[in-house]
């Protein structure tokens, strides 16, 4: 039990280092395309070079926005029933239903701008991102 807090702390530090996205990187022109994924409940899995990095569930009512470089391989980004896959440099942002409602009161901002200001943002370099319907798990 004595090593468990050290292992958890190490895992948290590694996650922060791997997924830290400085705001200047978030505006990178290399991520030239994005897709909004409906709020139907998803399981998000990240891996790098075939090694799993982590997985989490996104509940119904939370939309996902994924930015990616259109020159990178990105299979299945238009087949919601099957899920989505992105490979390479990515950004993932979440948006709650209440934030979607609030967007109506800020017409000066595009949907993409508002998503990038979300409470949860995750960035990865040279990663594989899999987004599958939660019911498939």
Quote the average pLDDT.
76
Morphology: globular
Largest sheet: 6 strands, antiparallel
Low-confidence stretches: 20-27
DSSP strand tally: 6
Seen as an oligomer or otherwise, the chain set is: single chain
Head-to-tail CA distance between termini: 31 Å
State the domain count. 1
Beta percentage is 35-45%
If strands are numbered along the chain, what order do they take across the biggest sheet?
1-4-5-6-2-3
Order of helices and strands: HHEEEEEHHE
What does the radius of gyration come to? 16 Å
What's the tally of helices?
4
Structural class, from secondary structure content? alpha+beta
Residue share in helix: 10-25%
Describe the overall structure.
With 137 residues, this protein is of the alpha+beta class. It has one domain. It is 23% helix and 42% strand. It contains 4 helices and 6 strands, in the order H-H-E-E-E-E-E-H-H-E. It has helices at residues 4-19, 23-26, 97-102, 111-116, and strands spanning 33-37, 40-48, 51-60, 62-68, 84-96, 121-133. A 6-stranded antiparallel β-sheet has the order 1-4-5-6-2-3. A hairpin with a 2-residue loop joins strand 2 and strand 3. The longest helix is centred in the first third of the chain and has 16 residues, at 4-19.
Topology:
Layout: H1 4-19, H2 23-26, E1 33-37, E2 40-48, E3 51-60, E4 62-68, E5 84-96, H3 97-102, H4 111-116, E6 121-133
Antiparallel strand pairs: 1-4, 2-3, 2-6, 4-5, 5-6
Offer a concise description of the structure.
The radius of gyration is 16 Å and the shape is globular. The chain contains four helices and six strands; from the N terminus they run H-H-E-E-E-E-E-H-H-E. The protein is α+β, with helices and mostly antiparallel strands.
